[in-house]
Design goal:
41% of the residues lie in helices and 12% in strands. The protein is an alpha/beta fold.
């Protein structure tokens, strides 16, 4: 109940913020060039913003494809960014290597994953879905933040890390509850200080795993580890969402994963416009057959609040035509 009240307050603040933004839309758009771009690229940058505004303004069935970059403002890591050294768990290691599986659960006990909360980006997408502008979200993230922010139609390609599933009887428990059970079974072990990045063999050996409370089977987060395939049901839902859309909005992902790259290619083949906002180059952008060169507008180092202002402002009752004219972009027929 408290969290639902928290969501209502956040939505109220967002609506209030949107109203304020409408009144100052012109002044904000004139300062768009203040984004972190060199002066030599400011003209092209402004034109790309205009193209994005025009595309968003003409769309009312937007499919959104998100990656780790959407959740960095919530305190989670973007695993592909420079300086981040992260090796994801493989299914083979988790299922067949007891030591690595124990280390996984010990590290999970100190992870902030269970405590992270949605950021402004998640709430903006939820607000747009409630207004009928966003038709659904396809996410590579396993943090569940889109649903926590209130989004309803969410396809979690890689699963949800807040659910822990028995690999034998498939009973499910919540991550937070399961970790508390692990902690209770290892109270004596966890009394000793340890470095989470370099856990000693003594602690690993003393650590007691906790099996399924129903059948004693091995418990695993309900996520796709390396070596596992995305469930066909999730693929079909993602493709159906894409096919019913009139624009694909790609946020916070470089499209490194094969399936999401194919989704973008499928959108291009079906003539669905694509807008991509991410930090760094998208995968395959240098290939001649890749559609990103003309349809995807990659705005490197674009501040989170600024690009979500564009998304939200494009669907409010603001006078968008003068803004587009100022940026020398053809408006076309608004929705």
């Amino acid at each position: 109940l408290i969290y639902e009240l928290y969501l209502e307050v956040i939505n109220f603040v967002l609506l209030l913020l949107m109203t304020v933004l409408m009144t100052v839309a012109r002044s904000i758009t004139t300062s768009v060039r203040m984004a972190r771009f060199s002066s030599s690229t400011s003209s092209a940058f402004s034109h790309e913003i205009g193209l994005m505004l025009a595309l968003l303004h003409r769309s009312n069935r937007i499919a959104v494809l998100t990656g780790a970059g959407v959740s960095t403002d919530s305190g989670l890591r973007d695993y592909k960014s420079r300086g981040v050294n992260f090796k994801s768990m493989s299914y083979a290691d988790f299922a067949h290597n007891t030591e690595k599986r124990k280390r996984f659960w010990i590290q999970a006990l100190d992870s902030p994953f269970s405590a992270v909360r949605p950021n402004l980006g998640h709430f903006c997408l939820s607000a747009l879905e409630s207004k009928g502008v966003v038709s659904g979200i396809i996410t590579q993230n396993v943090d569940g933040l889109h649903k926590l922010a209130g989004s309803k139609n969410v396809v979690e390609l890689h699963g949800n890390g807040h659910d822990i599933v028995c690999q034998s009887c498939f009973s499910t428990t919540k991550r937070r509850n399961y970790l508390e059970i692990i902690r209770a079974h290892n109270a004596n072990v966890l009394l000793h200080e340890y470095d989470n990045s370099n856990i000693s063999h003594e602690i690993v050996n003393a650590f007691r795993e906790v099996g399924c409370l129903e059948c004693g089977g091995m418990m695993k987060p309900n996520v796709v580890f390396n070596g596992e395939a995305i469930l066909s049901e999730r693929k079909m839902k993602a493709q159906a969402l894409l096919h019913s859309s009139d624009l694909l909005l790609v946020l916070g992902t470089r499209l490194n994963m094969n399936f999401v790259n194919k989704l973008v290619d499928r959108a291009h083949e079906r003539g669905i416009p694509i807008v991509c906002i991410t930090l760094g180059d998208v995968h395959g952008s240098s290939r001649s057959e890749c559609p990103h060169r003309h349809l995807v507008h990659s705005l490197a180092q674009f501040q989170t609040f600024l690009f979500f202002f564009i998304i939200v402002a494009a669907h409010l009752n603001m006078a968008i035509t003068p803004v587009l004219e100022e940026l020398n972009v053809e408006v076309g027929n608004p929705r």
